[in-house]
Write a structure and sequence with these properties.
The chain is an alpha+beta fold. Helix content is 24%, strand content 23%. The protein is elongated, with a radius of gyration of 31 Å. The N terminus is likely disordered.
Amino acid sequence: MKSPIVAQPAPLPESQDRSIGRIVSVTGAKAIVLLDDGLVSEDKRSRARAERPEMGTLFAIDTTDTVVLAIVSALSVPVPAQREGESELWIAELGLVGELWKPADGRGITFNRGVSVYPALGDRVRVASRHELEQAFCGDRRNSVRIGCIRQDPSISATIRVDDLILGTTGTGKSCTTALILRAILQKHPAAHMVLLDPHNEYAPAFGESAEVISQRNMQLPYWLLTFEELIEVLIGNPQERKAEVELLQDMIPVAKARYGAGRGNARE
C-alpha cells in the first residue's frame, strides 16, 4: 500500500506583499500606522511573535529611493471590541529613526540616521527584514564592538561605534552602557589602554581586576607637573621675601627632571 502523498505549500515568492498596515499620519519624525485585520479571535492571540508588532519592533516602509526604518513606540486600540468576532482599529505609533538608500537591485545598503524622504499617506508598512536589521544595527564592523544581540532577531549582533556619544537623562542607563561598551572594547582589544575619569566612583566595580583604580589616596604626580608659580607657592611661599630661593629653585627643577628621566630609562633596561 502506497503512502499518501501530502501536498506541500509552494514557497512564497519574494515579491509577495508582507505588509501589515498602512500609513495614516506623518508628523515630523513620527508616523501612525493602521494595522490590518483588527479582528478579535483566539487565532490572533496565538499568532507567532514575528507576525505581531510589539514595542520596539523595527518596521520598514518602502519609498521610491529609500527604505524608511521606524521603531514602534506605542500600540493602542482606540475603541476595543466587546466580544469575539468584532472588528476594531489597531494603531501603532512609530518613530522614524533612519533610512536605507536603494541601489540598482532595490536592497538598501547604506543606513543613515534621520529621514530625507518621508513616507506618504497610504504607504504600506512591513516588519524589517534580516538584511535591513543587519544594516541598521551592525554598521561598520571594523570600527564597532559587539554589545549584545537584537531582540527582534537574536541571531543578529548589536554593535556600536566606539566614537559615539552616550546621552540621556538621569536613570536611563548611561553608566551601564558605557561600562558595557568599554568591556566589549577590552574583549576585542585586550592590549588596549583606556583612561576613565570617574569622579563619582561608579565604574571600578564593573572592571574588577582589569582596572587600576587611582584615587586621591594612591595618586602620585611629579612635582614639576605644577607650573613654576604653583611650585613657588607650595615650596617657598611669598616670593618677594625669598628671591634667592626662587632663583635656586628655577635652576634645580631642570636638573631634577633630567635625573628622574635617567632613572626611568635605567629601570626599563
